[in-house]
User: What shape does this take?
Amino acid sequence: MLALSICRGLGRSEEGCAGIQFSIQSNNMHHRVAIAFMCLAVGSLLAAGTHAQAPEGPITPRPGTVIQQAPIIKIRSLLVNAPVTVRDAKGEMVNTLEARNFRVTDNGVPQTISHFDLGGDAVSMVVAVETSSRVEPLLPEVRRSGILLTQTVMGPNGDGAVIGFNDSVDKLQDFTSSADTIEKTISRLREGTSGSKLYDAMALGVEMLSGRPEGTTGEPGRRRVLVVIAESDDKGSEAKLGAVLRQAQLQNVTIYSVGLSSTRAELQKNAEYKRPPNPAPDGTFGLPPVPGSVQTPSTENARYGNVDLMALAVWAVSHIKDQIAGSGLQVASAATGGAHMATWKNRSVESAIDEIGAELHSQYVLTYTPTGTDVGGYHEIKVDVDQPGLKVRSRPGYYLAGPES
Assistant: This one.
């Protein structure tokens, strides 16, 4: 009966199955053995057919078959550091506030401060120094600044690296916690060619700092600080300032700058230098435009030092394909919550670095994970305090690229 059932399961006719049944009833022992092996073979075939109906592995689709895929879920995790400088009406630093005194909004949405620090987090510092022949008279002063950079900016628990740039950008010293090594590197800076690839050097500095360890939510990490000692003009860079600043903002890099000037080197014997006044009434142009530029009220304001750096920083980050002529260091510092120290008049390179160190280690750092604002585009950061009469300075925001299409 087993062979008959197997035979019918294979779709054989009644006549064929009857023949098999007759053979099994034979008294011939050889026939019985042969039939038994045949039954086992047929059973194996049926078992294989049953497994083939429910394959365990993946099935190769036929050409032209539309495959339905599960949706890809993208989760964006971003930790934002907002360095905040608070001064009183006299311009003195205020360092008595607590986290509860601050209010932070991201695109107008209040945020929860997850980490609060007053100048105590360890610093990872990159120093980018212009070594072009145009600032050669000022290099001896820069070479003496190494100890100030390590002691007042980097601090005892930090680490640092050094970049030199002119027509080329060179990593002179990778990250080290040895103050002596950094000081020796800066003391041996050599004069280079006449170019000044400022934005390329800044891009390298931001890239290097991006690899330094940063704290997680609620935990302290290293502050990422780029100190640029250079003239404000860029000559020959491939990088665009806006693109560099966009990356610096996303990587929580604060840029401080010390402005060098070849003109100051020629005039440093004079007792005082005064910026020439605007020779024409308001609304008119008394001087021809800068070669290669279009003369507008905004360009003239920039020319005479009245430019809105915060507005220009937002514009630069939002228009990364466009280049900004002049004021690059000032814009970079404003865009990242740092400060620009010009070395005109009585401020030397050493005193500028000393001021940077004093502010850096008296700054509040507010860290938050953006909530309620997970959209692409420019995010405006606003920081306020609950005490009147105080002046608060922080970075204006950051640019977040939209989801990939």
In short: The mean pLDDT is 77. The two ends are 65 Å apart (CA to CA). The chain has two domains: 2-42, 80-270+312-400.
